[in-house]
Design goal:
The protein is an alpha+beta fold. The chain has 5 helices and 10 strands.
Length: about 220
């Protein structure tokens, strides 16, 4: 059966990295980590390239520092601002910065940025395709920043899927709510950038309905 694009549903003729390769610092890339990929058409794959660079810049600058974030910033992000083609990305990053309540520093609200949200949505689409074998339309995905760390016990027996320590991991669970099914996700990038998402499950998606957590009234 021909593969379909994880993002638009058209025939796929290439592979796309669910988490953009640019988010892996050089020390991780040289170890040839196993990167999560899904089928994609060339049009979708190529259309993400510019926004993925912007996404990398925002992810790196919007959040707490880690060893991987520091390496990525000084080896990739900062040098790219000196290149003529990336000055536009530098200006876009500056435009996102706002004064915080004390006005002593600048803060970035990534969910206010269209390009950032587009790539974050693409990551959730890729994960949905990878687990449910069906392309995920934008309109059935809801995503927000997770502003605080949840206690470990809240996840119960949920499994964390890790794709390179310190860079990318996620968990999900599918719930039955009356006659509908929804999957809930937590995606963690660079250990401290966490996002929570919900995907409405479609009839054609492949998942074990008998194993879903029943939250019906």
């Amino acid at each position: 059966m021909p593969k379909i694009c994880a993002y638009c549903g058209n025939p796929a003729d290439t592979l796309d990295h669910v988490l953009p390769k640019g988010l892996y610092p050089p020390s991780k890339r040289k170890n040839n980590p196993t990167l999560l990929t899904v089928p994609a058409c060339k049009n979708c794959n190529m259309s993400f390239s510019d926004d993925e660079e912007h996404f990398r810049n925002v992810i790196t600058c919007a959040g707490k520092n880690t060893q991987s974030v520091t390496e990525l910033f000084f080896n990739k992000v900062h040098p790219s601002f000196a290149e003529g083609k990336s000055l536009r990305h530098f200006r876009q990053l500056i435009d996102l910065m706002e004064d915080d309540e004390t006005e002593e520093r600048k803060i970035i609200y990534p969910m206010n940025d269209r390009k950032f949200v587009r790539i974050l949505t693409k990551i959730f689409q890729g994960l949905g395709y990878y687990h449910f074998n069906q392309n995920i339309p934008n309109e059935i995905i809801t995503i927000e920043v997770l502003p605080y760390e949840l206690p470990p016990e809240i996840f119960g027996e949920a499994r964390w899927y890790e794709h390179e320590p310190e860079i990318f991991r996620y968990l999900y669970e599918v719930y039955k709510i009356n006659n509908d099914y929804e999957s809930f996700w937590i995606v963690e990038i660079h250990q401290t950038r966490r996002f929570v998402g919900r995907i409405k499950m479609l009839e054609e998606m492949k998942f074990e309905r008998n194993n879903c957590v029943d939250l019906s009234y």
